[in-house]
Every structure is written in structure tokens, then in C-alpha cells.
Amino acid sequence: AAMVQKYQSPVRVYKHPFELIMAAYERRFPTCPLIPMFVASDTVNEYKSEDEAIHVIERRCKLDIDAPRLLKKIAGVDYVYFVQKNSLNRRERTLHIEAYNETFSNRVIINEHCSYTVHPDNEDWTCFEQSASLDIKSFFGFESTVEKIAMKQYTSNIKKGKEIIEYYLKQLEEEGITFVPRWTPPVACKSESSTSHPRRPVSPAINIPESATKEGLSNKEILNTSSSPSEPTAGTPDDKLDADYIKRYLGDLTPMQESCLIRLRQWLQETHKGKIPKDEHILRFLRARDFNIDKAREILCQSLTWRKQHQVDYILDTWNPPQVLQDYYAGGWHHHDKDGRPLYVLRLGQMDTKGLVRALGEEALLRYVLSINEEGLRRCEENTKVFGRPISSWTCLVDLEGLNMRHLWRPGVKALLRIIEVVEANYPETLGRLLILRAPRVFPVLWTLVSPFIDDNTRKKFLIYAGNDYQGPGGLLDYIDKEIIPDFLGGECMCEVPEGGLVPKSLYRTAEELENEDIKLWTETIYQSASVFKGAPHEVLIQIVDASSVITWDFDVCKGDIVFNIFHSKRAPQPPKKDSLGAHSITSPGGNNVQLIDKVWQLGRDYSMVESPLICKEGESVQGSHVTRWPGFYILQWKFHSMPACATTNLPRVDDVLASLQVSSHKCKVMYYTEVIGSEDFRGSMTSLESSHSGFSQLSAATTSSSQSHSSSMISR
């Protein structure tokens, strides 16, 4: 089976001018003592331009790959040959390197691209980037072994690349070479030099403070950060992660882990208009799935949809917890642990969970827990800045003193499980450590109820102390500084966390009140969710009275691939009959599924298609609009998209087969919102719509002529 591995490096910044880096780089040929496997290299082709600005050199490199003898024997080779083509442009100050394998090129395809360029904000610094792909078609049945060897060799070479440049820079310095002059055009005649002169880069030094103020950093901070570009602003498509920034803010990652982060981040920038999570948050999802990029992408997309649906991004700024919570929820943030992680203290034993659920309902409790998690993310960022090293998780201290049978009240446990589930799904890898203190006798009962819902990775971080064990060796002092141990645990630190206590029954709400409240919270979002099955599309009816109205839509494809259609009909479709519920509409917590188009209706006779079908892939956000030509009934339809075989070869592509296997039980999920805007309102707000990049811009032309139907739909790909 063919497998393609991709690698994309962060940007490595050398604080040396391009010309000096080139002098160092050239010293690694024809052989280099630091790379023992690099046995020899011969120049095959060479080209120099007359003015010496361009120098292209093609080398054939001989590598002694560190592979098992048996494998070399089977393959029948001792050495592997690569072709490497270097194109140096001294005028533009760039070096581009392309390399590919010559040996086994029909079985294995390796491509690598590297570039050395001038740092955009400092012309005396040099940036290095590399990307590569490995595609193993076949290798005598040893495909996965070869893949492992190749990846291992490759990643160790990535690490070496930097050492090699630094080694030769040092060598140059010892020889007294610390400066290499820039290329200048040969002065043949005046006119020529004056034409080529403006092409030299003009010093962009002033950019630094400018971009920094844009990113909200004071000049003082720029001088302090050793990492080159100040923190990148989210969402600029060409913003790249540099190696120093990763080390400082995200931690020590292996080359493949860096590559996964960069690729997933790139994918998000291309597909998700709107809020892209911060780098450290993307990294949490990758860690939660052991850096399997596809699995991480799936849970991250689900979480982004969930955040949008429940407006989680605004929770801290817009939601005020009800007074009952502020008075009776016995938890709060309390300084930090010995590792610099934010510390959250929860006096669960003192808390009347039953009373809180009865007074507030599950939703408000869940929302409160979400706001705590959002605050945790914020504190991690803060501590990363303060402590000068990456801090991406928090420590939770749970005091169970006072835990009793009341805490095992079923609806309370159910609420707890649901909260755990939501937190696990949307805040992975945020719990650095969980200290459970003063666990009483009923605790094991609660633990057996709760633990199956907790991810294995998370469970490893639990430390449980019975009675007063936490005061002994291996106890609390190993994790938390003596000065901040809370008073209620016998420490000296005043802890602001509310004491909890019983919620007065007068605050309880009736079952009906709670029900209504819960319903309201669930539908608070303007989005509807729908399930789409093979053979059962989801359809929405829109009645148009004024011929030139505009139907607008905005939907996210949460799971599976779908086809989106719009139809028009002069007569109203029969509403789905309530008695034959099974046939027509399925309403489930997972979303609605309604069919409106009658089975006996014929396309072209009873209804017509007014837009060409749009295929939308999993994870995409689609916004668009349609200017209606006629009054009557419009039907928006989301339909299951089944994979056609690849047209050119008639063979199914591997990716397609895999995708069709992954769509479990042939069910897709869509979250949608539609609205009809009268044409007069629409024209008035044309400019505002254009600025929101919603793909409405082509409409200004469209609304004027109505000889044919017009639409625009934009997919954020």
C-alpha cells in the first residue's frame, strides 16, 4: 500500500547575514565530517550568469544509509544516490535547494525543498525552511521498515542541519571571517547599474516597531524577546512559526511533531475563516491523539463547531454567573503550583451538588465549568509569559473532606459525567495534575462511576490521598509551595475560594422551570443542527412572496461530505405527516432530518433546480446567497455525498475508499442558519456584506439584471 509522509519545518532564524550563511553552507561540500552518511558528491551541471548574480549547481550525492545489512542485501545496493540542485540568486539573496532520489526512483519517491532567504524584518538575519515528502510505492514487502528507517534518518538530519551551519560559522570566525560583502552589479556602464540598483532590497528596518504595535507589543517587549519576530498575529495566511518561538512558547517538539502542528495550522487557515485557535491549543488536540494529524483534525473541528454553536469564545466577556453559583460553588483559582501551572482549588466535599443542580439546572453548571476552563487557558498563556517557559496545563486540587452519600445523588452524578465529557472533548491535555485529598470511604463508589468517562492519558495524572496522607512524604509539599497551601488544609495561605454549604431549598426551581430553562439554553444558538443519511437528505422550506428577495445561508459541515442544492416549486410541498414519523422526519438530539420533496414529484415538472449542486467536504464552512427570480416555495437541501470512482482511471482512489470507510453508518451532520433578506434591505447593506467576505460580493452586479438566476456561494477551503 502506498503511504505518503509529509514534513514541513518551522522557520529557523540565523542571526547572521545571508552571505555569511552561504559561506558556511558551501563548506559542507564535497563531503562533511559531521554527516558520516554523506560519503561523496560530484558536480554534474553548473551554470553561472555573466554578472555572477545567478549560480546554479547540480550535484549527485552518495549516501551510505544506516540500514540493516539484510535490507541492503535484498535491495542489492550499498549506497543510495540523490540529485541535489542548488539555485543561488545573489541579487535577491536567496538559495533554493531541490533534492530527489535517483536510486529506487520507481519504488520510492523522495522530494525535498529547502530555502535560505532574508528575514522579512531584519536584512542582516537569514531564514531557513524545508519541506519534504516521502512516497513509498513498493519495497520488496518491506515498505513500513523502509518508511521507519527513512523517517529516522531524515529527522536526525533535520536536527543536524542547524549544527552544521553553526559549526562552519564558528570555523569561519576562527579564521577571522565574520563578514562577507553583498553582491553588487559589475559596473560596466552607468545606465546598467542604475537600472539594476533599485532591485536591491531597501532596508525595511522600520517595519519592526510598526508590526509590533499592530500586534499590541510595546517597544520595550520587543527588545526583551530573544525570539525573532514578535508573536505572530493569528490568521495572517503567510505567518509562519519560527523555531525559537516554538521552543519558547510551545515547548520541545520533535521535528515530526513540529511538522504536524504546522500542517494542521496551515489547513485551519485555509479552511476555517473566522477564529483559528491559538497555537498552544491546536497542539493540545495533537497531543491528545498522539500527533495523528487526521484524528486530531477531527476532534479539533468538532470542538470548533461546538465553540461556535455555544458562543464559547464570548463566555468570559459576556456571561455573568448567577449569584447562587458565586455563593455556593466552592471552587476558585489560587496562585500556581511548583511547575508554574495555574492552580484550581475545588472543595467538592463542601459543595451541595444536588442543591446546585436543583437551583440552576445542568446547563448553567456546565456553562460555569466552561468559563473556568476558558479562564484556565488564559492563565496558562499569562504564566507562559511570566515564567519564561511554555505552560499549557493547570493543576487541580480537589478536597473531598465532607463528601457523603448526598454527592452520589444520581442526577448530580449524571450532570458531572456530562460536564466531564464536554471538558474532555474540548479542553484536551489541559489538566497537568489532579490532586485528590482527604478521600473518604464513599469515594471508591464515586470513582467507579466516574472513571470510565475519563481519558487514560488524563487518568495517569491523578494522585489520590486518603485522610491526612497529603501532609506526609510524597504529599502536597512536593507539588505546591508551603507559602500557598490553603488555610483549610492546615496551610498559612488565606484561600478566597467560597466555603460552599447547603443551597437553601427556597432557591430550588420546579422541574418544569428547569426543563424550560434547559431547552432555552440549548436553542440559544441561532444555528440548527441536522443529520443527513444515505437516502435521507435534510430539507428546509422557505416561502418567498416578493420575487427579488435574497435567501442567505451559512452552514458548517461537521461530519461527512454533503451536496447542497436549492430547488424552486410553484406549489407547496405537503408537510411531513406526523403519523408516519418514521418515513419523513426523525428528530433526535443529534439534529433534525426532514424530507419535503414528495417521492412522486419529478424534477423539471413539479420543481426545478435553481443552483448548480455544491459539494462540501467535512470541516468546511460555507456561506452564500441566492437572488430569487420568482415567488413561490424554495427548498434548501443537504444530501449525502457518495464517492464516485476517480474519473480518469475508473479505479477508486485510496483516499476515497478510506473516506467512505470512515463515514460511520453513512451519517453526516450539518449545522445551518438561513435568513431571507428583502432586496431593498440587501442593496442598502451591500457594502457591509462585502466587507464580511461572505461571498456576497458578486451580488451587486447580480441584483441589477434578472435575466437569469444569480448566486454566489463561498467555501472557506
Automatic annotation (TrEMBL):
Native source organism of the sequence: Anthoscopus minutus
Protein encoded by which gene: Sec14l1_1
Name by which UniProt lists this protein: SEC14-like protein 1
InterPro entries: CRAL-TRIO_dom, CRAL-TRIO_dom_sf, CRAL/TRIO_N_dom, CRAL/TRIO_N_dom_sf, GOLD_dom, GOLD_dom_sf, PRELI/MSF1_dom, SEC14/CRAL-TRIO_domain
Region Disordered, residue ranges: 190-239
Keyword Zinc: no
SMART domains per record: CRAL_TRIO_N (SM01100), SEC14 (SM00516)
GO terms, molecular function: RIG-I binding
Annotated GO biological process: innate immune response; negative regulation of RIG-I signaling pathway
